[in-house]
Amino acid sequence: MPKRFLFGALWLQGCLLGVPVDIPDPALVGDPIVLEPKSGPDGFHHARVGTRVVVQFESAVSLDLGASRIALAGEDLSCVQPEPSRSVYKCERTLTGDEVEGRARLTAEMVDSGGVGAGTDSSGEILAVDFTPPTAGCVLTPREANARSKVVFGVVVSEALQGGAPDVVANDDRLEVSPIEPKEGQFRFAVAPAEATDINVTGYELQVTGT
Fold first, then answer.
1. Which domain holds residue 28?
2. Higher pLDDT residue, 40 or 36?
3. Which residues contact residue 119 at a Cβ distance below 8 angstroms, ignoring those fewer than 6 apart?
């Protein structure tokens, strides 16, 4: 009578019953990296309508991008996996104005390549979404000047600008506008004739721009 060996079956049974299998849940690994736009003077990334936003994030496992939902500021991102051997994903979106304003987090409803879901994970705040244009308060001193007067144009902005200071230009080529040292939270500009001659300039305008 041939001998029967039950070792394989017993070993398999022991494996199934006694050895836990550790399968990591899909989850973000660290905070995403914002590739675009570049960070502003405050070290944070700012975006408005028309800004192309590109972020890169890593997951604990390989994801099924077709079944997962990756969003930023309440709207979906379009994602790709540049290297199939790595669980690193690059996502992008051009802002349309439908997004939620304020400090935005990346949210991910992730499903792994085996069809296993793990609810929603979210990052820290990675982007400031701002669709409200900044405003400026301006004052010109003195209001009336002669050739010996020092004319200063002061500007106070409603929020920090990406460029730091606003740009100020005159609509008259005979005038020159130059930035001088700020004072008491006010950006200041010297307004003077472009040439050292006695001229009478009236009806000019100073235009303030900034983002």
1. 24-129
2. 36
3. 109
